[in-house]
Amino acid sequence: MRPSRRAFDELRPVSIERNVARYAEGSCLIKFGETHVLCTASLEDKPPSWLRGTGKGWVTAEYAMLPRATHERTRRESSSGKPSGRTQEIQRLVGRSLRAVVDLVRLGEKQITIDCDVLQADGGTRTASITGGFVALQECVKWMMERKMLTVSPIKDHVAAISCGISKGTAVLDLDYAEDSEAMTDANFVMTGSGGLVEIQGTAEGAPFSQEQFLDMLALARKGIGELVELQKQAVA
Fold it and tell me: Which domains does the chain have, with CATH numbers?
């Protein structure tokens, strides 16, 4: 039995609430069980300097955890002068994942920044950030189209992410912190709504995992991401 008493292929309760930030062009609060992430999309009417004159836009992301997102207070990274290596790795992952489903030429010479702020952490903050970040991005594009800033949506497909792992010899879906901290293998999968693979991150914490176990995790990830994409569609309908 899993610590959360879920079935091996069962997601935590997931909810997506749109329009939670008054001033952002797009926003949502996504909850994966006790992991809560606020995602906002901010539009700039110019691309990064290195893209000016190319006709292309850009989608990027920033990620941060509030000081009391965990059991003990953590120091704000802004007070130390720079983000940690973990933070940089996560925000680059979120940006790459979102750009995988955006036609940057159709976006035009504009930049959309997705801010992912973890209000409460219980495992899976990066996968929640990607899944919620897409909803915020889609809301931003909708805002632009309503104002005739775009005539065709640059979004080509949905994208979502989920964690899987090998716990007590069994492949399981959507690890919370209690499970993640003792899992033999931890992996994050990013996929599009049509089933394309965007990125896979996997690490064996103990014994190496087999090809069969990897395929078991991949099958679980496809199932979980399919469910998440349906929740995204319901949220923005």
Answer: 14-236 (3.30.230.70)
